[in-house]
Amino acid sequence: MKESTVTNPAATALVLVAYDSQLRWAAGVGAELASRGWDCRYAAPSDVRSFVTPELERELGVRLERAPWAELVRRAAGADVLVLALQGPLTSRFVQDVAADAGHADGGRDGIRPVVVTGWVGVIVEKLVAGYLERFASDVVAVNSREDLRTFRAAGAQLGLPTDNLMLSGLPLLPGRPAAPRRGPVRTVLFADQPAVPASRADRSYLYGRLVEHARRHPERRVLVKPRHRPDEDPFRTARHHPAELLAGDDLPPNLELVYEPFPELLRSVDVVLTVSSTAGLEAVGAGVRTVFVADLGVHESLGNHVLLPSGLVRTLDVLEGPDAELPEPDPAWLRDWFVGDDDPRPPARRIVDRVAELADVPPAGRPFARTTATPAFRARVALAGHRPGPVSAVVPALPGRRRQGVRGRVLLACHAVLPSGWQDWPLVDRLRRA
User: How many CA atoms lie within 13 A of 261 on its CB side?
Assistant: First the structure.
């Protein structure tokens, strides 16, 4: 496909994120937009819980502004491109509010000005169809894998939704094709930790203990543990039992380290990446690094590794004890599902922006957004959002003209505001949750 370009220096793009993983996804799209001439601005809603580290902003070369939700809705309605890397419920709410601000809450025939882009920042482990329905009302729904695309097309057809806005882009964190697999002896093993997987202290202690044992048995190897964030940081998925906490006081072998360098930098020097179900595993495969999705705790929806079975890389840590040749190889069909460059060599971000550039030349009334927001499904979502507090209104303060939040929503907001991070996991809260 011929690459589309934009030469209008006045074209503007607003990119909305709330967390590190979302900024990583969005920055690839934003960089491609900027290379085509769009004035690309990044922002996070200041009245929604969010966390992006200054280190990541510097690493990606972006400046993230914080502004109130209502102000960002106003700016979005006047932008030429709107990229929503927010969680699904927030994405759905924001699209509804932008449409309402432009006077087209019911999918008016004139549409809205910006080309609206939505997508997923990693592997979808839950809410597959629900997540699609939170994003379907947009001009470009960027889909990460062929299997997801088949699922969304089938769901859209069964629900009577236009599906011409679905595009197989591939995950912008990944190359179009994976690098050639690296070979050779295993000298450095990296465990890519996840904040909430596994959830229990006992399971996390077990995994860290296995890594400590491996480091002791193999003093010739470096064993690195890469937490998602530092103990004193407060991201979206705060680690319930941080490895620095669980390993504190232990007599650790000198070849085991906690590291906080950017993951792409670490990939340059490691030989094997271990993770339970993190998107970091896909990044490692893309970089040609041997990868294992750890199955010592089983395969379960709560771990997110059930969706990775087709990879052929789900194994227990015992696989590290055998010869290097016994490390698993990714299944070719799974590689084709996630690395979509065989049919089209363009990188994922370029595919997305090429489509955006095409739609920028189409009058708003002729874009997919105008058709998707004219559907009964969209009108029902707007009506429901105005009728009762939902998952979005529990974290987004009530906006002008919106129904006041219920008691539960206000209590949750107050807890987030005054209690320290991790309050959701206090024993008292857990007992109340089960009551």
Answer: 12
